[in-house]
UniProtKB/TrEMBL annotation:
InterPro entries in UniProt: Nitroreductase, Nitroreductase-like
UniProt cofactor(s): FMN
Protein species of origin: Candidatus Aquicultor secundus
Domain Nitroreductase as annotated: residue spans: 7-170
Coiled-coil regions listed: none
Homology family: Belongs to the nitroreductase family.
Keywords for the protein's UniProt record, in alphabetical order: Flavoprotein, FMN, Oxidoreductase
Protein name: Nitroreductase domain-containing protein
Length: 190
């Protein structure tokens, strides 16, 4: 898959087939994602991949997002809000969940937090594109701190902060792309 084609054809998938994702497929994704452009000094993030009974327990926790994200849903168009509410009932039946964690930092190191998030997010986006290359669908999972702490406890991730999630599986839908407005850019000295 050519890079620009992959970027433009990737969609947030909110409905998945009940087919497990082989560990080998996930390993191929990680093998290539390690080439993401990151700040090497801040390579403190980890990924946790979950399926089975633990996936179901975490999906139950994440259904709380519909209450926590109520204000965000209010900003969406009615169709997007409906899709989001439906998705969060069981994360679209995705068989696999992936979470990004970073080190919990003492107050005097909180400046490092933004670097940890930036570098983790860079690799995370590559994982999303590489999953698309493998024929997988994915959808981002918002993990507010309150729910992140519960996930941390369930997974025994002492000392790690859960910052984001991804549902992963074989797509059972083909969403049509919505228009993507260009970001604003300010040019100085051009």
């Amino acid at each position: 898959m050519e890079l620009l084609e992959g970027i433009k054809s990737r969609r947030a998938i909110r409905k998945f087939k009940k087919q497990e994702v082989p560990k080998e497929t996930i390993e191929r994704i990680f093998e290539d994602s390690r080439w993401a452009p990151v700040v090497a000094a801040f390579r403190g993030w980890d990924f946790v991949i979950v399926r089975g009974e633990m996936r179901d327990r975490l999906a139950d926790l994440l259904t709380q997002n519909t209450v926590i994200l109520r204000d965000l849903f209010a900003m969406m168009d009615p169709d997007s809000e409906k899709k989001a509410l439906e998705y969060y009932k069981n994360l679209g039946d995705a068989p696999t969940l992936m979470f990004v964690t970073i080190p919990e930092l003492p107050e005097e190191q909180r400046w490092e937090y933004s670097f940890q998030i930036l570098t983790a997010t860079t690799e995370f986006m590559q994982i999303w594109l590489l999953a698309h290359r493998e024929g997988l669908g994915a959808c981002g999972i918002t993990v507010p701190p309150y729910i992140g702490r519960q996930i941390q406890e369930e997974l025994g991730l002492g000392g790690r902060e859960v910052i984001y999630g991804l549902s992963l599986g074989y797509p059972d839908e083909e969403p049509i792309a919505k228009p993507h407005p260009r970001v604003n850019a300010t040019y100085i000295g051009y």
